[in-house]
Design a protein that fits this description.
single chain; mainly beta; 22-stranded antiparallel barrel; five-stranded mixed β-sheet; 9% helix; elongated; disordered N terminus
Amino acid sequence: MNIRAAACSASILAILASLPALAQDNDGDVIVVTGSLISGSEEDGAAPVDVITADDLARAGSPGLMELARRLPVSAGVIGDSSQFDPRSQFAQGVSSVNLRGLGPQRTLVLLNGNRMAATGGGNVPLVDLNLMPASALARIEILKDGAAATYGSDAIAGVVNLITRTDQQGFVVGGDYRYVPGSSGDWTGSASYGQQFGALRLFLSGGYQRRGELQMTDRAFAWRDFAENPQGGFSGGGNPGNFDFNGAVGGTVFEADEGCEALGGFRSLPGSSSDLCQASYLGFTNLVEPEERYQLFADLDLDLGPGMDLRVTGLYGRTQTWLHTSPSFLPTIAPSANAAFGGTGLFTIPSYAPALADYCARFGAAAGCALDGAGNPTEPALAFPVRFRPLLAGGNPLFDDERGATQLDYNNDAYQLAAEFTADLSGGIELKLGATWSQYDAFFEVGDSFVDLLQNALAGFGGESCAYASPASRAGLSQSQLAALAGTGGCTWFNPFSTGVAGNAVTGEANPNFAGNGNPLGQDASPGAGLVNDLGTIGHFYNVWGRTANTRQLVADAVLAGDSGVTLPAGEVRFAAGAQFRRDRFARVFEGGNNLDLFPCPGSVLNPVATCDPETGALGFIGAGRDFAVSREVYALFGELHLPLADRLSAQLSARFEDYGADVGSTFDPQVRLRYEATDWLVLRGGVGSTFRGPPANQTLSDTVILTFIGGAFRAVDILANPQLQPEKATTWNAGAVVDSGGLRLSADYWRYDFSGGIENEPVGGIVAAMFGAIGTANCGNPAFAGLEARFTFSGGVCGAGNVQRLATYAFNASDVTTSGVDAQASYDWRAGGVDLQVGAAGSYVINYRVDDVLVEGVLVQPSFDAVGKLNFQTTAYPLPRAKGQAWVQAQAGDHSLRLAVNHVAGYEDQRGAAVFGPNSGALAGASVTGGKRLAAHTTVDLAWLWTLDSGTRVSVALDNIFDRDPPFARLDQNYDPFTASPLGFTAKLGVSQAF
C-alpha cells in the first residue's frame, strides 16, 4: 500500500501527458529491416515503423508478448487469456495474437526474423500464435503500421509485426521470474540462452519455460454477478435444473421450470406462467485464466562461407499445453432419433414409468404440473425441448477430476519453423538472397458432448454400456408396459434429469434439500444395478470426450536480387530489389470418434450403424461433428522495389507485387508508393499510398466448422459452411506523417486510412438473429420475404422462434466495405539532471472512424451500416474498438538503476445493443430494460517497474502492474468484462532475476 500511495501523485502528472504504448528508447538512429526489401532504412524512413528493443521491454517490467499486444495503442481486439464465449476465440485457448487497427488478427502479418510462420488452425480465426515465439531470444520487435502487401504479399493488410532475435550475445544468460496473481498460484518463467562466435561460425541457442496459474471465475468479484444484474453473464435457459413439460399430454408446448431450480442457485422467472424458465449459471465452471505450460526452443547458426557469402539457418520449436475448464455438459440442440427408446418425436421423453419422474411428482405435488392418477402416479411422460435442458450443470460432471465438476479438456499447440537463407555479394554492389522456410502448427483440442440417442435411452431406463435392451432390435415390438418392465434391469440403468438427481451446487458448495439420492429414487428394493440413477457408468456411456487435430503447414521459397542499379539520378544512385516467391499452404483436420461424421453421421448412428438422416447432423447434441479433410493451395509471386533519390532531401520508394492463386481464385496486383522528405535536419515528412490484399484461406473455401454462440437465451451451435466463391479481400491504404528529432525531443505523428472491400468474414450471427426474430422472438417467422433466412435455422419441434433455435447455418463470405482512419502519435523528451537520465513520454492511437456498410444475407438487411468506433461490436463483423488507447510514462536511469512509471488508458466505449434485449422466453425480464454495462467505462491503470543492472552481469527486476488494482469495466458479456480489451488479473507483482556468464 505504501508503494501505491507514493505512486499516486506522480501518476497524475503522467496521465496529463497525453492520450495515454510502450516507451521506445530511441537514442541515435535505429536501422530497421521491416518495410523494405532494400537494406539500410531508418526508423524515420518512408514507412511508419515502431521499434521496441529488448532493453525497452526490460525497463517496462518484461511484459509477455500477449500483454504487449494488449497494451499497444495500434492493436485492438486481442485474442488471449480464456475467452471461450466469443466465436472468434473459441478453440484458441493458449493462443495469443496481435490485431493492428482492429481489422482482425488474420490481417496482421507476423514474421520471425522476416520469415513467415504457419497460422493456427484450431480456432475459428487464422492467426500467428505469439505465445510460442522465443521471448527470451528477442532483440527487438519492429511494427510496420501500414499495409504492406506490395512488399510481403497476402495477410499484411493492417501491417507487419517482425520479431527479430539476438545476434550479438556472447556467453550464457539464465533467468527467471515469478508473478504474484491474487487468487492464483501465480506465473513462473525460466530461460537460458547461449551465444558465441567460433571463427566463421556464430551460434545462438535459447530455451524458455512458462507456467500460468489457473484463475477461476469465482476468484474475481467483478466476474460473478447475479441474473438480474446481467442475464447474459453466464446464465442459460437450457441448463440443469432445466425446463420440462411435466404433462406430456400437452405435447411439449407448455414448459415449466424444475421446482428445484432456486435451491440449486438458479433464477426462476415466472412460476406458473408460460414464460416460466429456470436460468442456470455455467459461469462458475469456467476460468478467467486457464492453467498453461509452455516450452520454447530456438537455435540460430550463421556460417561465413567466404568473401561475400553467408549461410544462416534458424529453427524454432514451441509447445503450449492448456487445460480448458468449461460447462459440465452442453444443452442438446438436436433431438434423439427413432432408434432410441421413445425417440423420434423431436423431443426428449422421460416416460411416465421412470422412477425419477414419479419421485419428482410425488415430491413437489400439484405445483409440478404433473398428470397423476388417483394413486398419485404419473400418467403422462415429461417432455423436454432439445434446447431447454442439459443433463449436467449445477452438480458438476463427476467424470472429471475438478473440484467444481467442470469439464476439463486438453488443448495442445505445437509450432515448428526451419528457415535457411543464403546471401552472396555479387559484382556491382548487388546482393543475392535465396531463402526457404518451412513451418507447421499443430493444434490438438478435445471436445466433450453427449450422444443424444444414448441420453434418451438412459432417460427411459436403458442406459449403461452393458444394457441388454439398448439397441433398437432388442426393443422391437415391445409395448410400453413391456418396456417399463425391462427398464432398469439386465444391466440397464437410469438417468435422472431433474434437480432431484443433483446432490448440491458444485460451485457454491450448497447442499440440495431435494436430492433423492443416488439409488432408486423411490427407495424400492431392486436387484443390484437396477434403478440406479446418475452413476458414473450411466453418465460415461452417453457423455464422452474426443479429440480434434488441426494441422497448418506452410512452405515458402524466395529469391531476391537487391542493390545498386547503376542508374544515377541528380541526387544519387537508384537502388532496387526484385524477386520471386513460391508459397504452398496446407490445412488439415482430423476428427476422432464420436465427432467424426464418417463414423457417426446421424443421431441414430450410435445405436444403428445404417441409420440415415438429412441433413447429416452427427450424433452429438451440441458441439457438432466434421469429416477429416486436407486442402492445399500454391501461390506464385513476382515483386519489385525501387528506391529513388529524387533530390538531396527527397526520396521515393516504389513497390509492386503480383500474386497468382490459381484458376479458382485468380490473381492480384498491388502497387505502393512512399515518399520521404527531410524538410530540416530535425524534421522528416513522409507519406504513401498503396493497395493490399489477402487471399481466401483454402479451408474456408472447402471445409465447414462449428462455432458456439448466444441465441435466444442460451448458447447454440452455429455452422460456418464452406464458400468456394470467396474472393481475395482488398484494401487501399494511405499514410502521412512527420517525425521530429531535435536534441532530447522525439515526436512522431501519422495519419492513416484504410478503404477495405470484400473482407472475408463470417456472416454476423447477432444481426441474423435480430433481423429474423426482433425483440418479440418471432417477428418475421412465416414472412415470405424472410423465407431464405428462416431456412437457415433448425427449430425444436419445427416451431419458428428465437427460443426454439437448435442450430443456425452461416457461411464465410466477402463482407461489405469498411473505411477506417485515425492518427497515431508519440512523443518523448530526454534530459540529464544531477547525474540522472530522465525521460517523459506518451504514445497513443485515436481512431476517427470505422465505417461498415450494410450487410445482407439471403436478401435481408441483417446489419445496417454503422460506425464501429467506440463500440463493443458484439456479434458483428467488427472487433471491440475503443476510440482512443495509449500510454504515458516517466522513466529515470541512475547508474545501475532504472525506474519507470507508466499509465495505461483505454477510452470508454458503448455496447450498441439496445437495452431491451430479452424476448418472451426470458421470463420476468421480457421486454425489460437492462441498462447496466451498456457504457463500458474508460479504464486507466498504473504500472511501476524497477530494474537493477550490476557490473557482474546480474539483473534484478520488480514489476508492479495495475498498482491501484482497478477492475476491468463491466460489460454485458458472459464473463462480465471484455476479454478482447482488458485484463482480468488486477494488481500483480513480479520479481525477476537473470545472470550473464
